[in-house]
Amino acid sequence: MSFNSSKCFSMRVTHKRNPVTKNYKMGHHILEEVKHHPYLGVELSNDLKWSTHINQTVTKANKMLGLLKRNIYYCNNSTKSIAYKSLIRPKLEYCSGIWDPQHKSDGDKLERIQKRAARFTVGDYSRESSITKILADLEWEPLQDRRTKLRLTTIYKETHGYIPSNIKCHLRDTNSSSQPRTRQSGALSYNIITTNKDCYRHWLYPKTIREWNQLDQNLRTAPDVKTFKTNLETINIKTLTSKAHFNI
């Protein structure tokens, strides 16, 4: 297999103020250094933040929403709702378990897309109308809650061997006398991962393990993914995340 060196790039991931700079070559071609680059549909940045990816995602979703407004404006609410769930929401949620925003401003950008889509779906652009009520009538839950459920489902799949993972190295030893006994320290609970880097603190494991440990033991040991997802729908996600991250 041969590579086209002109289409290859280098990206240095570091938080150093004065990083050591070097040129990397492929053959006789010096690779261009970039600050961000796509990988499997996700925009990776050299500061390990997701703002660039989220901005690109919002742009794509806005374009698709504009397309729907031009082409199905006079369709009924059901058709518009299906179009949103089929063409826009998947763009907002692609790999979102990995890049779940750490900054509220980034999360709000995504939520605004859904709110505009909701007003378009019901044809109500009045400032006096409650967008919260419109979303409730459409039964569209906040994207943040959906991302939390996706992350928890990912941890469930990794815990029970549905997908390859090394997460079990973080399992608590419930037989150890050195482990503190808490309400959440039952079967399949994990040690809390601590870090002083925000980019890692809001990554899948450190962030979601806190929420996973708050789940009832019967939910963590659900017999299959379908049962886990069904039971997860009965949980108040906002209360769960508030308890999990209260002491952060």
Would you mind describing this structure in some detail?
The protein is mainly alpha-helical and 248 residues long. Helices cover 49% and strands 6% of the residues. The chain has helices at 51-71, 77-93, 96-99, 104-122, 131-138, 143-159, 198-201, 204-214, 217-220, 225-232, 237-244; strands at residues 9-10, 25-26, 29-30, 32-33, 36-39, 42-45. Helix 4 packs across helix 5 (131-138) and helix 6 (143-159) crosses helix 8. Residues 176-183 have low confidence and may be disordered.
Strand order of the largest sheet: 1-4
Number of β-strand runs:
6
Which regions have little confidence, pLDDT < 50, spanning 5+ residues? Answer: 176-183
Gap between N and C termini, in Å?
Answer: 48 Å
**What's the mean pLDDT score?**
89
What is the approximate shape? Answer: globular
Range of strand content: 5-15%
Helices and strands, in N-to-C order? EEEEEEHHHHHHHHHHH
Write the layout of secondary structure elements.
Blueprint lengths: L8 E2 L14 E2 L2 E2 L1 E2 L2 E4 L2 E4 L5 H21 L5 H17 L2 H4 L4 H19 L8 H8 L4 H17 L38 H4 L2 H11 L2 H4 L4 H8 L4 H8 L4
Parallel strand pairs: 1-4
Antiparallel strand pairs: 2-3, 5-6
Helix pairs in contact: 1-2, 1-4, 2-4, 4-5, 6-8, 6-10, 8-11
